[in-house]
Amino acid sequence: HFFLCFLMYCWVLADPVCGFFLKNCTIRGNLSNPSNMKVPCYNRNLEVIPIDIPRKVSNLDLAMNKISKFEKLDFKGLSNLKILNMSRNQISQVDDGTLGHLEALQKLGLAHTDSQPCQTICFRTILSLLHLDNNLITTISSSSFQPLSSLKTVNLTKNNLYNMKEVQPIVQLPHLQELYIGSNRFTSFQSQEISNTSIGLRLLDLSQNPLGIVRITAYILPYLEVLDIAYCGQLGHMKWDVLDRSFLRNVQRLNLSGIEMSFERMAMVLQTVSSSLVHLRLHDLVKGSRPKIKALTDVACHIPTLSVLRLEYNNIGNLSEEFLQSCKHMTEVDISNTNLSQLSNFSFRPIEQISTLKFGHNMLSSVPDATRNLPRLKILDLSFNINKLGCSDFYNLTGLTKLFLFHNQIPNLPGCTLKLAGNKLSSIRKREFQSLTSLKTLLLFDNQIASMEDGALVNLTELKLGSNKITQIDIRNTVLTGLPLLISLDISCNYITYVNYDKLNPPPFSHLPSLEKLRIFSQRHYQESRTLWGKGSTWNPIEFYVEPKLFYLEPKRVLQRVLLWGQPKNPFRF
């Protein structure tokens, strides 16, 4: 009994910030701050909802279990619950009023549950997001969504809906912004079937439906910004009937990937949104020959507002100088997975504003010359392609911030130099060069560097740190540690100075066992010249000009070259 009481006492005194366990679940967050409390119970083989869920929980995840029914008192008392995920359960029974206690609920996940809407959600709440995807829903009662006036996003993807009139109760919700009804059995989308007045939808996903026609005869979608009709149509005969371009005048993102539609009708679609389109996907046009893809690209690139063009999964093969000639306004072009093996050196010359290029999963053997001299390029993806790199491959890409080279068969790298001079770097952290294990030469002069973490550049043999902010304290404690292979070092034009002539212990370069060349001239101060050398030094006799107040040196190897000038006419020999 004493032992049991002791355990209970320890449980009460547990730190409320740390996670602890209830049966089959974990509690994460701060017990005193219920807005952050999460209870993940997913994939635990649960058959019923746990009875010991903390009353202050705000996020409860019961996905991927074996729960088959909701009982009336399962969620009683969870008045703070905002997010409930019940996806991937086999729910066959729901007692009336089961979720009625959840007055704060905002997000509800019921995907893969074989649920019917009114079984589970007929209650008044502030719910804003509802997932009902991957169920067996064929019809939607007109009363199912009436209490859910706060809904902003509804996902009904992969159900068995076939009549567009079924979604009418949903699109009439006053705050609805996003509707996902892809992968159902709709054969047409006609505006009069869903509404006679304008609705507030901003995103409409109709993808992967066997649509035979899209007909919009009224101004019911004035706020629509995203339209997805990818992989729609039947046997190339999908029709497009929009009486007035102004009906879709705010569409900015359009997905026409894999669509079963003739070239002429696709051109009509593009013309309909030509006053506003910014982002266009034309993936996987299986029946599109290379000339058809080129023709569609020309139509798209004449849209003055278009800036992002994605052409993945098309059979382009060879990117000629003319292919993107019309795309002068593009800032992003994605031609991944297009069997690309050749590019003209001038493929991107017309695109002066290009900032993102993606070539992933192609058949390029090396970095194409076409990517050079693109000063505005920020992101370059060459993953799953090349088998060699050259030192000038990224010549003049001065704006590049992200370079993707993973999953390439590059057996070796040439002895290239990484030049980062003339920037505003203040420190070098340990992991910033972790992938550059072959880096030997690094130029960092003319920055503002005062510290470098140990282990940041373990394989480096040449380092130039001239014109930075290194002091005598930095040089002993942080900057020059973890460089066991360093042969040549330049720390000229920094702030290294000492107030007396005492021997320095430990010597500042004793942790650079491979050092052979040292440049340390022109430190930014002016005092009497003098240097102190350690006993047993193996330095070769060299004439040099010494900078004032240099430190005691005790090298472990013979320095081949030492440049220490700065104050003229103070020659020393040793």
Automatic annotation (TrEMBL):
Pfam families: LRR_5, LRR_8. The keyword Signal applies. PROSITE patterns: LRR. Keywords: Leucine-rich repeat, Repeat, Signal. InterPro entries: Leu-rich_rpt, Leu-rich_rpt_typical-subtyp, LRR_5, LRR_dom_sf, SLRP. Residues 1-19 form the signal peptide. This is Toll-like receptor 22. The lineage of its organism: Eukaryota, Metazoa, Chordata, Craniata, Vertebrata.
